[in-house]
Amino acid sequence: MGILIPRLAPTLVCLLAFAVIFVSFTKILLPRINKALAERQDAIDGQREQAEQASIEAAEVLAEYREELAEARHEAARLRQEASEQGAQLIAGIRAEGLREREEMLAEAQAQLATDRVIAATELRGAVISLATELAGRVVGEPIDSVAHESDIVDRYFSDLDARNAAGLP
């Protein structure tokens, strides 16, 4: 027999050992390995499903957030518009109140001016009468106070003066 031809006894022992190892591997180890791989695959699939679910939920939350943000922007624009309108109304009201107060103040000032003018004219007439009678008394050499106060001459003079002023004559 040649060197290359194997002997039968060692070959049978090797074949028997291979069969025992192969059977034990397929019956014991291979199911455990397959079970571990299946569990791992299930875990990966579960995580993938959870990730997909989380992604879907995140997209929904993002869509809700964007919708709320758009609503908030719309509400802010509406509030700005309302505030602007209220401000314009307030300014118009304040302006109207200021104009009304100004008109009242002008009317009061004109009334006070007219009153002061009448009072000043009356006082001035009295002063003019006193000065005129005093000067006339000095010219004549006698006091003429009683004649000037009882006379209608002074009243006629001031009436003529008022008429000339009203007509615009000097």
Write a concise synopsis of the structure shown:
The chain is mainly alpha-helical and 170 residues long. The protein contains 3 helices and no strands.
Q: Topology, pairings included?
A:
Layout lengths: L7 H133 L4 H6 L2 H15 L3
Description:
This protein is mainly α and 170 residues long. Helices cover 91% and strands 0% of the residues. It is built from three helices and no strands. It has helices at residues 8-140, 145-150, 153-167. The longest helix is centred in the middle third of the chain and has 133 residues, at 8-140. The radius of gyration is 62 Å and the shape is rod-shaped. The mean pLDDT is 86.
Computed Rg: 62 Å
* Number of helices, counting only DSSP H or I runs of 4 residues or more: 3
Helical residue percent?
over 70%
Stretches where pLDDT is under 50 for at least 5 consecutive residues are none
Number of strands: 0
Instruction: Provide the succession of SSEs.
Output: HHH
Distance between the termini: 170 Å
Overall outline: rod-shaped
* SSE class: mainly alpha
Provide the β-strand percentage band: under 5%
Largest sheet: none
